[in-house]
Design a protein that fits this description.
Order of helices and strands: EEEEEEE
Distance between the termini: 16 Å
Shape: globular
Strand content: 25-35%
Largest sheet: 4 strands, parallel
Number of strands: 7
Strand order of the largest sheet: 1-3-5-7
Radius of gyration: 17 Å
Helix content: under 10%
Length: 117
């Protein structure tokens, strides 16, 4: 993947989310039958949603703590920085890796990947 434009975003504080699933409640049953709790992730509660800003081309992220959010990207993302968050993103790419982290502490939340092949 070639190095694309550098994306610099406003840094914000990221707070850990509090899980809503109670481990003592109904859980998927191994080896058959299914017992899925209402708050278990599915296609209606995960993936990119809402208004997304269209972008095209491959991106390189070089700034620690960068947050990319609300994007509809036709390309791939290469992360060279640490503690980068990619949130609410739709990524359409022909690349084998839609997002490749070379840094540490990367987080991807609510992302959808589509193949351009």
């Amino acid at each position: 993947m070639s190095k694309g434009p550098t994306v610099t975003c406003t840094l914000t504080t990221i707070r850990p989310s509090t899980p809503t699933h109670d481990a003592g409640s109904s859980t998927p049953t191994p080896g058959g039958g299914s017992s899925t709790p209402a708050d278990y992730p599915n296609e209606t509660s995960t993936g990119a949603k809402g208004m997304l800003t269209p972008r095209s081309g491959d991106f390189s992220v070089n700034v620690d703590g960068t947050i990319l959010e609300d994007i509809d990207l036709k390309g791939a993302i290469r992360v060279y920085a640490n503690n980068v968050t990619i949130r609410n993103a739709k990524i359409t790419t022909g690349s084998y890796w839609p997002i490749l982290f070379d840094g540490t502490g990367g987080v991807v939340e609510d992302a959808t990947r589509s193949s351009a092949r």
